[in-house]
Write a structure and sequence with these properties.
With 251 residues, the chain is of the alpha/beta class. The protein has a single domain, classed as TIM Barrel, CATH 3.20.20. Helices cover 44% and strands 16% of the residues. It has an 8-stranded parallel barrel with strand order 1-2-3-4-5-6-7-8, surrounded by 8 helices.
């Protein structure tokens, strides 16, 4: 990275809930996982509650909201489709950030960003509502520099760059080309007054290279790879390992 900006780590806990939901014992505990990550230095917790509750459930969202009141330095980010169940949580809990994602109800995982300006008309009201509640709005976006100004006009505060294409290109001849698109998208976002987040398939191997190339990323949200590492290392060690990769990007 080109400055001393330190990216925040927000840990996505969906996969902890996914494992828990295969039994009726309450383990592994989502709250315990969040606590250990926060104790180790994570700056935020992310959840993506879907309508079918296949992983994070409404009770988890409420319990995490209560937990984070004791961690004023950390942020709570709730992701989801604003036309499904997301806005009910935003209205009731007013998290620090809501990330609007255009996924379908039965979708395996998020796999594309909003199409702007085509989606602007239907997003306008929900973005305005979240703004009125004092909740930061982040739009899940593909790395398209020309779309960033449309996100800003819509009233978004940040964009979350969807990084799966980078993860697939990492270590291949296409890595620099793909990183160039992300860097250009981040510059375009910053130039029009947006903050920049990033997430999806970032991991310990590819994170530092991404942050070195894409300046100004405020937050990365990491779930699947983080929980996979935590299975081997433990939550605390995994958190420290990801924070070390973020710091390595500054060197």
């Amino acid at each position: 990275m080109t400055d001393s900006h330190r990216t925040a780590l927000s840990v996505n806990l969906n996969k902890v809930a996914l494992v828990r939901n295969t039994r009726h014992l309450g383990i592994p505990s989502v709250i315990r996982a969040a606590t250990l990550c926060l104790q180790a230095g994570a700056q935020g917790i992310t959840v993506h509650p879907r309508p079918d509750a296949r992983h994070i459930r409404a009770q988890d969202v409420h319990e995490l909201h209560a937990l984070l009141k004791g961690w004023p330095q950390a942020e709570f980010n709730i992701e989801g489709n604003p036309f499904h169940n997301l806005m009910a949580f935003v209205r009731e809990l007013r998290p620090h950030q809501c990330t609007l994602v255009p996924d379908s109800e039965g979708q395996f995982t998020s796999d594309h960003g909003w199409d702007l300006p085509a989606d602007a008309a239907r997003l306008e009201a929900v973005v305005a509502e979240a703004n009125s509640l004092g909740v930061r709005v982040s739009l899940f976006m593909d790395p398209l520099p020309e779309a960033m100004r449309h996100a800003r006009v819509l009233g978004a505060d940040r964009v979350e760059l969807y990084t799966e294409s980078y993860a697939h290109a990492f270590g291949t001849a296409r890595q620099d080309e793909v990183l160039g698109r992300f860097a250009a998208s981040a510059r375009a976002a910053l130039d029009c007054g947006l903050g920049v987040n990033a997430g999806h398939d970032l991991n310990r191997a590819n994170l530092a290279a991404f942050l070195r190339a894409v300046a100004g990323v405020s937050e990365v949200s990491i779930g699947h790879a983080f929980i996979a590492d935590a299975l081997e290392l433990g939550y605390e060690a995994a958190t420290r390992a990801y924070l070390a990769e973020i710091d390595r990007a500054l060197t």
